[in-house]
């Protein structure tokens, strides 16, 4: 039997897209039992397809089968990324597949739109690793059009595009992202552009305190305070800036050199390809090109999750499949594997505590802080030795000694 609350979000989604199916193009008029539609247009088209495939949303069991297939596809895409990086030990994949009740619930039981957005995002990352940047940007934008949390990966993607193409070469890729948003939103932009933009890209939307997973230990008035929100935004921007300057940027040159054409940089930076890359500085944990791309994208998203104004239970899927990489991309001794597995277990326990408690939310922040410290110190550049290699020819002194 399905729990009583299984159908809540699914029915609301179906009610929202039903208005579009009936001809409504004013975004402010698309509503469901849980409130107005607050997702971009890509969500409408994808769930409209599910609406028709499941008999106007009535066949929930079929929808769950479809989401089970999405879950398996998502795992396949994630495993392919991890195989390219070659950083995570195989036994960790067991925990990713079998040890998370919350993730299974988000995908197959509650039928949220978050898994749809993340599956498209992981497909885009696979394309980035294959050097198909234009197609990757197209799918990245499609993921954003399903749910805006994908924008947490955007700072890392922008850094990679600048590093790979320079400012002028980066502009066409950004135009691909923007153009898709315009095309998808066009039916709504032609009728009520202000209504569509304010509803689907509302960055200032308030969250309900009763659903928060990460800030339960705060008083509700602090949780809802705009000053607190501004402080979190500043912390997020500061974290991105520090990682971009000191962890993502591997060259000794000023970071502004990323704006130049890669061919005109001095010294010229080699092309950022998956199979051939020469980094200017070595790291404590040497990362190949695929691993470096994934590190920048996953750490960008993780910084955003750490500074989120609120995390609801379905938001766990935003970063669950990235946690093993974030934990194992840094050097790991034989004895250090257990603390990392323990961190995964504590994070899982925090997300499975319902309703959240002061202890669970504090524990979640502590785990996030430990991962951030590991990423910061585990990928710190090491001093590059300029001592010339010893000569193979014996010196005059050694000849005399012989």
UniProtKB/TrEMBL annotation:
Identify the Pfam families for this entry. Answer: ALG3
**Transmembrane intervals:** 37-53, 65-82, 111-129, 135-162, 174-191, 227-245
Q: Which gene encodes it?
A: Alg3_1
| Pathway participation | Protein modification; protein glycosylation
Subcellular location(s) of the protein:
Endoplasmic reticulum membrane
Task: Read off the lineage from the record.
Answer: Eukaryota, Metazoa, Chordata, Craniata, Vertebrata
UniProt membrane topology term = Multi-pass membrane protein
Q: Which reaction does it catalyse?
A: an alpha-D-Man-(1->2)-alpha-D-Man-(1->2)-alpha-D-Man-(1->3)-[alpha-D-Man-(1->6)]-beta-D-Man-(1->4)-beta-D-GlcNAc-(1->4)-alpha-D-GlcNAc-diphospho-di-trans,poly-cis-dolichol + a di-trans,poly-cis-dolichyl beta-D-mannosyl phosphate = an alpha-D-Man-(1->2)-alpha-D-Man-(1->2)-alpha-D-Man-(1->3)-[alpha-D-Man-(1->3)-alpha-D-Man-(1->6)]-beta-D-Man-(1->4)-beta-D-GlcNAc-(1->4)-alpha-D-GlcNAc-diphospho-di-trans,poly-cis-dolichol + a di-trans,poly-cis-dolichyl phosphate + H(+)
Q: What is this protein called?
A: Dol-P-Man:Man(5)GlcNAc(2)-PP-Dol alpha-1,3-mannosyltransferase
Q: Which residues does the annotated region (Disordered) include?
A: 383-402
Cross-referenced InterPro entries: Glycosyltransferase_ALG3
Q: What is its EC number?
A: 2.4.1.258
Per the UniProt record, the source organism is Melospiza melodia (Song sparrow)
């Amino acid at each position: 039997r399905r729990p009583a609350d299984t159908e809540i979000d699914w029915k609301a989604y179906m009610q929202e897209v039903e208005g579009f199916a009936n001809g409504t193009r004013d975004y402010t008029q698309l509503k469901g039992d849980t409130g107005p539609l607050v997702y971009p247009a890509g969500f409408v088209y994808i769930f409209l397809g599910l609406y028709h495939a499941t008999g106007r949303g009535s066949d929930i069991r079929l929808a769950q089968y479809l989401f089970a297939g999405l879950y398996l596809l998502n795992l396949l895409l994630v495993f392919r990324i991890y195989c390219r990086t070659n950083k995570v030990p195989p036994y960790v994949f067991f925990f990713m597949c079998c040890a998370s009740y919350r993730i299974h619930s988000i995908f197959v039981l509650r039928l949220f739109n978050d898994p749809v957005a993340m599956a498209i995002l992981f497909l885009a990352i696979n394309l980035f690793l294959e050097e198909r940047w234009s197609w990757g940007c197209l799918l990245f934008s499609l993921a954003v059009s399903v749910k805006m949390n994908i924008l947490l990966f955007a700072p890392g993607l922008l850094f990679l595009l600048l590093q790979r193409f320079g400012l002028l070469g980066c502009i066409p890729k950004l135009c691909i992202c923007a153009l898709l948003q315009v095309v998808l939103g066009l039916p709504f932009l032609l009728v009520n552009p202000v209504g569509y933009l304010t509803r689907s890209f509302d960055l200032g939307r308030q969250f309900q305190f009763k659903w928060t997973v990460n800030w339960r230990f705060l008083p509700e008035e602090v949780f809802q305070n705009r000053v607190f929100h501004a402080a979190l935004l500043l912390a997020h921007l500061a974290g991105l800036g520090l990682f971009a300057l000191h962890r993502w940027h591997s060259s000794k040159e000023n970071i502004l050199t990323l704006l130049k054409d890669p061919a005109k940089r001095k010294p010229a930076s080699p092309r950022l390809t998956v199979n051939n890359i020469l980094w200017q500085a070595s790291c404590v944990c040497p990362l190949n090109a695929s691993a470096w791309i994934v590190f920048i994208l996953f750490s960008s998203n993780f910084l955003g999750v750490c500074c989120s104004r609120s995390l609801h239970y379905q938001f766990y899927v935003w970063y669950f499949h990235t946690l093993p990489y974030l934990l194992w991309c840094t050097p790991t001794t034989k004895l250090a594997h257990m603390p990392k597995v323990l961190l995964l277990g504590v994070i899982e326990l925090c997300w499975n505590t319902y309703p959240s408690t002061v202890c669970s939310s504090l524990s979640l922040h502590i785990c996030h802080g430990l991962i951030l410290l590991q990423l910061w110190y585990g990928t710190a550049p090491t001093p590059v030795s300029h001592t010339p290699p010893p000569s193979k020819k014996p010196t005059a002194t050694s000849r005399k000694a012989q």
